[in-house]
Known about the structure:
The chain is an alpha+beta fold. 38% of the residues lie in helices and 27% in strands. The protein has one domain (2-191): Gcn5-related N-acetyltransferase (GNAT) (Aminopeptidase). It has helices at 19-28, 38-55, 67-74, 77-80, 108-113, 119-122, 142-156, 172-180; strands at residues 2-10, 32-35, 86-90, 96-104, 125-133, 161-168, 184-191. Strands 2-3-4-5-6-1-7 form a seven-stranded mixed sheet, with helices on both faces. Strand 5, helix 7 (142-156) and strand 6 form a beta-alpha-beta unit. Helix 1 (19-28) packs antiparallel against helix 7 (142-156).
Amino acid sequence: MERYESSYTPLPEQGALSFEEAEKQFNEKGLVLKRLTPELYMEHRTVLHGFLNEAFTNNPLFVEIDIEEFGSIYDELPSKLPEGFAYMAVDKSNAPVCLNIAYPDIFYTTYQAASVTDTLMTAPKLIVKTLVTHPDWQSHSLGTLMIRLLMDVARNHGIKDAIHALMYLDNVSAKAGQRKFNTVSARTYALFQKSL
């Protein structure tokens, strides 16, 4: 059995980083912060495929896919994301070391219209779908910098809460982030495996 959760975080009033502030902190680590545009995605598509395959290797839900399947799933994604919600940090060789993909929740107004009383469902939220750091760069606070940047993006869009979707519970970095940002579990999932 493997356990995952989605967590809820009220975004703190303090600690957000503008793009320029985050860019400076990434530069101090020898990295370059870039907005993930459709053009940048296509330029790095093959390298991102390898990066994500390597970064998610220890996640039991992860199944390696080939570049064609990766493209069929992800090629349209960057053009569907609102500008400024996805970022990538690259090293001196232009290889990705950290990636986040987030988007504003578009369903909260539907829940409001249906008179749902759960404020977790009816308030505008930032959905953090992917936050991944290359194994060689873990413990360098890259994920924290990305979250602090997303806090600024969210605030600029009137969003005060975030949901980090489907995190593997044994993910050490995710646990550290939960402590830093005072997250609470919103939903827990258990996946069972049956040998046939």
